[in-house]
Write a structure and sequence with these properties.
Blueprint lengths: L6 H10 L11 H13 L3 H10 L16 H13 L3 H9 L5 H6 L4 H13 L3 H12 L3 H4 L10 H12 L2 H11 L2 H13 L9 H14 L2 H13 L3 H13 L5 H11 L7 H13 L6 H10 L7 H15 L2 H13 L7 H10 L5 H13 L7 H11 L2 H7 L2 E3 L5 E3 L3
Antiparallel strand pairs: 1-2
Protein name: Sel1 repeat family protein
Pfam families: Sel1 (PF08238)
Length: 415
């Protein structure tokens, strides 16, 4: 048994939440498996944490690539509360599933649950600190303390009570934020930036410190956000340093995003070499949005040494993940020439025909296939028409092999 929860839950919290701090989050899937096994064994706290993992990026780092299933999450929260998890009760309240019927069935009252979680929070448990902070941030304290407006003698007294309780979120959220709960920073930012109308005034100067702190703590997503704040201030070089740190820490899609910035010269000097480096890092992270760009770079030798075999690899992945017509047109050329693969005229024709309106390479492939009768009946006239439409250096060289007779028939020139 761990200090606050079962060993499985404490390890899962470390892998899923706390290791995000410092860019060390590489074991999220392992953490989820621990939770799934613990839930099967009847661990009530595991049900609560697993529910949050299934609720999407609002509640867990998107870099873990967890599935989203709100219906299952709701079931798990109810189960957690019914099994006697204190965090389960408070998170169920926050998740909108703590009905009167459920409150009557669960073994803990919401007041008892709050006391248990608050004790763990005071002892230093970050998830509990976050949960307690949220009870104040989201006004759940009214239910926990069983208070309503009519309990107060006047509006001023009620407002003072509300203001006093809301403000308690600040300390708890900062503790959670520094302890490994990056989500706490997002609520802190909202607390400072927006305040709570009629009760808490906005504090924009404090809001500016939140994501800077998160970036320095090592949260990859907040490094990216802080980079954006710096860029808005015109501090481009410093901003890109933080963007890169966020990418190195695993913030999803940041390598592709950086590659686009370098490729277009957006805010920085255009740099094809750096763009390709970023795109390749994205690919190694399992992010394939820019495979067509990598294919283009290796096919033509922009930013990297020309390597048609690598181009074939990247174009193949691009077609697989996003059905890129641009990639199809270049894959057709690879299959025609045998670049990165053996020649396959059937595939070359299929890909070229499917993408002929997208790129000159498709037209070139169709032209050569028809002119030489590769995998289909020879039709030089039709092939010449495609080559003329392609109209680039390779197609122009290919056209030199053919001529039109006095009778208007296209034939192959004698060599």
């Amino acid at each position: 048994m761990g200090k606050f929860f079962s060993d499985a839950v404490e390890k899962a919290l470390q892998y899923i939440y706390y290791d995000t701090k410092g860019g060390r989050a590489r074991r999220g899937q392992e953490g989820m498996k621990l939770l799934i096994d613990a839930v099967k064994a009847g661990d009530a706290d595991a049900s609560c944490i697993l529910a949050r993992c299934l609720n999407g990026s609002q509640y867990v780092w998107s870099g873990h690539h967890f599935p989203e299933d709100d219906k299952q999450a709701e079931t798990l929260l109810r189960q957690s509360a019914l099994q006697g998890s204190a965090i389960g009760v408070l998170v169920a309240k926050r998740g909108g599933v703590l009905s009167l019927g459920l409150m009557k069935q669960m073994p803990l009252s919401i007041q008892e649950a709050f006391a248990i979680v608050q004790e763990k929070a005071a002892a230093g448990e970050p998830f509990c600190q976050y949960v307690i902070g949220n009870t104040y941030f989201w006004w759940d304290f009214l239910t926990i303390q069983d208070k309503k407006k009519s309990d107060f003698s006047n509006e001023k007294e009620f407002k003072a009570y509300i203001r006093e309780n809301i403000s308690k979120c600040e300390d708890w959220l900062w503790r959670a934020y520094r302890g490994g709960m990056y989500l706490a920073g997002q609520n802190l930012y909202s607390y400072y930036e927006k305040g709570d109308e009629g009760y808490i005034d906005p504090q924009p100067d404090k809001a500016k410190t939140v994501y800077k702190t998160g970036a320095e703590l090592g949260y990859p997503n907040h490094q990216f956000v802080y980079g954006g704040e710096l860029e808005e201030e015109g501090k481009i070089e410093e901003a890109f340093r933080w963007y890169h740190r966020g990418a190195e820490g695993g913030h999803p899609n940041t390598w592709s995003w950086l590659g686009d910035r370098y490729d277009k010269g957006d805010g920085v000097p255009k740099d094809e070499v750096e763009a390709c480096r970023c795109y390749e890092k994205a690919y190694k992270c399992g992010e394939y949005q820019r495979c067509d760009m990598l294919g283009w770079a290796y096919f033509y030798g922009h930013g990297v040494a020309q390597d048609r075999s690598k181009a074939f690899q990247y174009f193949t992945k691009s077609v697989e993940v996003k059905e890129s017509k641009y990639a199809e047109s270049h894959l057709a050329r690879c299959y025609l020439e045998g670049w990165g693969t053996g020649p396959n005229y059937e595939k070359a024709y299929s890909l070229a025909w499917n993408s002929q309106g997208e790129n000159k390479q498709s037209l070139y492939v169709l032209g050569k296939l028809y002119c030489e009768g590769l995998g289909l009946p020879e039709d030089i006239a039709r092939g010449v028409d495609f080559l003329r439409q392609a109209n680039f250096s390779d197609a122009q060289e290919e056209l030199k092999k053919y001529k039109k007779t006095l009778f208007g028939k296209w034939v192959r020139r004698r060599t």
